[in-house]
């Protein structure tokens, strides 16, 4: 009776133990006694890592391996370990677990080169090494993992070329290389893998136009190219990626117009184009043709957004709407019908006058972040005693021309900014009693 080669392990280290999450996939959870050599192999694996006290960001993390002790005769009862009675004993070295199919070592701050021994785990279908400090080149031995479907190397310090052996990963459909130091030329092999569904290349040094090799990936549903130093126009061939439901091109140097053919990407749910250099008049109608769109960021370009009156028009139900710096001179009236917004940004526009009464009824239960800063707002048609958004956490009214008394946020508020206005009167004691980051010191509160 042995430990399964399709073993489930979940290790979540906090404080002195840094192994956050290691999972060995299993089809069942029977609990037989394991052999001494199997217990020893797990203990050897436990001791093989450098431990970092600040490893985990998870508040729920705790040292699961504290139960891993030689005096316990059944390693299958150790916290985070499950056994299957149907297969043979575990090999002496953990990287000789040739039946391992699921392995996650994310959120650990591991350092040092990634062992080439990973190439022995040829049955792996899921490998996650994200959120560590692995440096240098990635091992060419990863090319042996021809069963891989999911590979996440994001948030490390990998650099240099990606070995040509990665062209062997023909079953790979989910790849995330974001937040590393790979250069553009290291990624050409990706264009030969036409089965990709999800591709994360955010914060890589891709300097130049959107990589041409992406045009071959017609099955993509999720493409992340945020913060890649991209320049040039959005290429027309991107319109052929009709399966996309997530397209992220934010925080680059893209310019020209936002193409109207974006409305052909009918599956889009999330579109991020913010923090680029797009210009010209953009008709909001092109986004109304995307029935699934719920996350839209257009903020901080040089566009003039033209929004027609909402009569007899069906608008998507937005959850996030970033329309900062879009040359708006009034509140878009389609917001009247929005009841699922969580984040709304209208900052850095030319909106003047009073905040309309109907704004109080927009997304009252869902809105948690509202930014109206850097406009020309002078006040409120009717100021409620407490702002009506019951889950509001962040409110920014700074750099306007607001007059009169200060609006009182709900108890849920965490950050409240209202500097550089012309408000008068005393700061209400209700605000002083809130545990909130606000734009004044406690000495300004009326006692």
TrEMBL record:
Subcellular location: Cell membrane
Superkingdom of the source species: Eukaryota
UniProt-listed Pfam families: LRR_1, LRR_14
Signal peptide residue numbers: 1-25
GO cellular component, one term: plasma membrane
Keyword Nucleotide-binding assigned: no
Disease resistance R13L4/SHOC-2-like LRR domain residues: 83-320
Main location: membrane
UniProt keyword terms in alphabetical order: Cell membrane, Glycoprotein, Leucine-rich repeat, Membrane, Repeat, Signal
Name of protein: Disease resistance R13L4/SHOC-2-like LRR domain-containing protein
Lineage: Eukaryota, Viridiplantae, Streptophyta, Embryophyta, Tracheophyta
């Amino acid at each position: 009776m042995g430990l399964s080669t399709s073993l489930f392990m979940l290790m979540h280290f906090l404080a002195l133990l840094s192994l956050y999450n290691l999972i060995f996939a299993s089809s069942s959870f029977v609990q037989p006694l394991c052999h001494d050599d199997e217990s020893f192999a797990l203990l050897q694996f436990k001791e093989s890592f450098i431990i970092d006290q600040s490893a985990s960001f998870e508040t729920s993390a705790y040292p699961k391996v504290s139960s891993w002790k030689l005096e316990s005769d059944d390693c299958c009862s150790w916290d985070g370990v499950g056994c299957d009675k149907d297969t043979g004993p575990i090999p002496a070295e953990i990287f000789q677990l040739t039946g391992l199919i699921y392995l996650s070592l994310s959120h650990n701050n591991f350092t040092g080169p990634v062992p080439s021994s990973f190439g022995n785990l040829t049955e792996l279908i899921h490998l996650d090494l994200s959120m560590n400090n692995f440096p240098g080149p990635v091992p060419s031995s990863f090319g042996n993992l021809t069963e891989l479907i999911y590979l996440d190397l994001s948030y490390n310090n990998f650099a240099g070329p990606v070995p040509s052996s990665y062209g062997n990963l023909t079953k790979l459909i989910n790849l995330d290389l974001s937040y590393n130091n790979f250069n553009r030329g290291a990624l050409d092999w990706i264009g030969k893998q036409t089965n990709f569904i999800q591709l994360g290349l955010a914060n890589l040094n891709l300097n130049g136009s959107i990589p041409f090799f992406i045009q071959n990936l017609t099955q993509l549903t999720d493409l992340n190219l945020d913060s890649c130093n991209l320049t040039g126009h959005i290429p027309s061939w991107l319109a052929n990626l009709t399966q996309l439901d997530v397209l992220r091109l934010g925080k680059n140097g893209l310019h020209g117009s936002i193409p109207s053919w974006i409305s052909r990407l009918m599956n889009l749910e999330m579109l991020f184009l913010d923090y680029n250099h797009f210009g010209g008049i953009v008709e909001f109608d092109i986004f109304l043709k995307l029935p699934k769109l719920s996350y839209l960021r257009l903020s901080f370009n040089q566009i003039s957004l033209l929004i027609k009156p909402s009569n007899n028009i069906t608008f998507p139900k937005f959850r996030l709407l970033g329309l900062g710096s879009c040359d708006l001179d009034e509140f878009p009236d389609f917001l009247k019908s929005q009841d699922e917004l969580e984040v709304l940004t209208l900052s850095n526009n030319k909106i003047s006058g009073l905040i309309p009464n109907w704004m109080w009824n927009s997304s009252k239960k869902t809105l948690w972040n509202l930014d109206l800063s850097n406009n020309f707002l002078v006040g409120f048609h009717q100021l409620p005693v407490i702002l009506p958004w019951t889950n509001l956490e962040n409110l920014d009214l700074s750099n306007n021309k607001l007059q009169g008394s200060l609006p009182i946020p709900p108890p849920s508020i965490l950050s409240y900014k209202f500097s550089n206005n012309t408000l008068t009167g005393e700061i209400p004691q209700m605000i002083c009693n809130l545990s909130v980051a606000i734009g004044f010191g406690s000495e300004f509160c009326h006692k």
